[in-house]
Batch of 2 targets.
Target 1
Amino acid sequence: MNFGGFVPISTVDWRGRAVCTVFFRGCPVRCSYCHNRSIQEGEDFRDIAAVQEMIRSSKLLVSGVVFSGGEPTMQPEPLIALMAASREMGFAVGLQTNGIFPKVLRRLVEGHLVDRIALDVKARWERYDSLLKEKYTHAVQESLAFCQEAVAGGALAECEVVVTLFRGYEDEAPHIARAAGNLDLVLQQGVEGMVPPLSAAELKKVGDRLKRPVKVRTREEGEVLHCG
Ligand code: SF4
């Protein structure tokens, strides 16, 4: 796999569970605010067996593995192999994805390889392609619809829609919340350049407008469930 990094223990990637996190290198989206810009591109190829050993070495510390990036679904074969190995080792399996490869998501869920998906939805659909400078709207819509169906049908235990919200773009949230439907919704503090990030209180105010429970994720408070 094109390897982006490994964190042996994380308590922030899966609320309520200690996990290890495997980062896949490479993401075609290239968001300017990406918190992992150093692994958006480049090459560091590692044997799957070596990465499996990293995961195995965390066994005493954690109960789950989260695959993140970069974009893990861009490398479906290594991802599938590592998820299957993680399952065999007895770990719960999570995925963080931007949803631009819906067919891979389908393979993972239909193969019973993943318990939890955190799906980024970055903007209202009308703004999506111009924001990402590529035509990804239909792919992300397909991923979202598939996750909704998979959760409703019991094929996927958990899925949350993650919205990274920047000051000045608060009005995007109601559109994304409508699209998210019954999936869990996370409002996450976007941080970029000199623009001050929305505070936890400001994000909660945005949450109030949505008239539904939201998870508010900030640097100052971590993740809190806000019910308006
Ligand atoms: S989609 Fe995610 S991983 Fe890819 S560049 Fe954007 S923030 Fe970074």
Target 2
Amino acid sequence: MCPECKEAATRKFEKVCQILDKYQRDSSKLIPILQDVQKVYRYLPEEVLVYIATGLDLSPAKVYGVASFYANFSLEPKGKYVVHVCDGTACHVKGSEHIKEALCKKLNLNNGKKTTDDMLFTVEAVSCLGACGLAPVITINEKVYGQVTPEMAEKLIENIWAEENN
Ligand code: FES
């Protein structure tokens, strides 16, 4: 890459560059680097993975392989608010399916669509959130809500809408 292109890429990916520097561009720190980068973009864009690969002197395939292996990494854009609905056994028997249905209906997420058109919400089912005693459980951006009813879940969405419109 010529110096001008390298400088332009560095400007474009300034935050990624700072994260790479934070970890001294150590390729053994790829996972924490990807975690930090995902916090910036809320997912891992392909062009960013290529930039990271260059910065760590790894092949893009290696970086993509790690990013696609772990469920916590997303290669797709996600909404500002990520709602995880637990469908593990404890939550399932307490009606988590109805919570997910209510959320999807409220957010107009049909046919397996996970993210709203305005990129405000992503709704995903997960297998266990580690709070089975509070079943049924959801998280919104990792904040845990227990003993959730469909009505409560809808209210949480309404509260976020109200906050966002203030
Ligand atoms: S099964 Fe839902 S939190 Fe564990």
